Amino acid sequence: MEIIPEGKHFRLVHESELPEILVTLERYLPESLKFHQTIKTYLNDRIWDFKFYVAKDWPDKPIILHFPGCTLAPHNNIYQTLGIFCPSAHIEHVDMLRTEDVLIDWQKPMYLNFTHIAIMNRLDDFYSKFGVMERLSGDIYVCNKLNTDLELEPLPEDAEMRLLNLDNVQGIHDLYPANEIECVQLFDILVRKLPGLGIFRKETGELAAWMVHSYYGAMFSMQTRPDFRRMGYGIRLAKSLTQLVIERGYTPFVVIRPGNDASRSLYTKLGYEKAFETCRVRMTPDCYEDSTVGTIDNTSYGKFPPLPQGDCVVVTKLRRKHVPGESQTVDEGIEDMLAEKCDISGDEARERKTTTDEGIGEDK
């Protein structure tokens, strides 16, 4: 699709500017960590073709965007998925998005990948007047120093940990709980270019658990098949991949939902510490209807998928009634789209062929 060179308040960044933008973002760590490492991975490995935009008064107004926010976008329109960073000390600059009518069409659904809670709260004041914001919450945990003294039990003799390869791509994508917003081609590139580890059964070669380094610098989506849970695979993968990510010059981080004590315990043992709160948001204007379907790399993808239902995470919907000026708040439970542990029945686990385990998922 045609790339827009300039919005009302933002301009497209030339690739030669990105190293200097990284320097500016370093002033705002750890809040800027996800955006900082998205650019760093983009420059180092070109995992996905992101378009970065900064405020026309950058860096005096330190707000930066990237499109798409995740790898699948409705109708091939990358401008319907969005990543945002603005430091909380300068949160007033988020208000520029309210009148950014060139890059963003607020009359269409938008999908915002994991974004600092202060930015989402600022958008609430604006968007709740005419649409619905569905949130999937999480806490960012950062590893500044890996706990290398942590001793782990050896793997069983019938299991081995090794690097993932291209033969594992389809299976990985099938297990990923948010695969409706990240295309299988992404996982192909991740396995080719970034470190990813799996634990395999020696006799059958079956993939029991896996974890990869993501395109935004994080520890991306640990998954364990139901039959292989509680065998210590998760913490072994997390420790080994954390070390690989550090060796590549990145700062490992994960997203953990607030009620996920198992994941929090696992990662804090490894040296991770909470940095800030974040959330993924699906934004839908009231009365929006769209029956068309787009395709991305031969994958059908029309309307944004709803955030999955369940009782693992509670989110708030801000829904405006169809009466001007009136609104109501509805609390609804949703299942965590991240790769985090949720208790499900054995029958349900077998039906899904997997369950979410400790760690982070995406998009994003």
Automatic annotation (TrEMBL):
Residues 159-288 form the N-acetyltransferase domain. Residues 341-364 are annotated as: Disordered. Signal peptide: none annotated. Transmembrane segments: none annotated. GO terms for molecular function: acyltransferase activity, transferring groups other than amino-acyl groups. InterPro entries: Acyl-CoA_N-acyltransferase (IPR053225), Acyl_CoA_acyltransferase (IPR016181), GCN5-like_dom (IPR013653), GNAT_dom (IPR000182). Coiled coil: none annotated. It comes from the Eukaryota. Pfam families: FR47. The keyword Acyltransferase applies. PROSITE patterns: GNAT. Keywords: Acyltransferase, Transferase. This is N-acetyltransferase domain-containing protein. The gene is Dyak\GE18308.
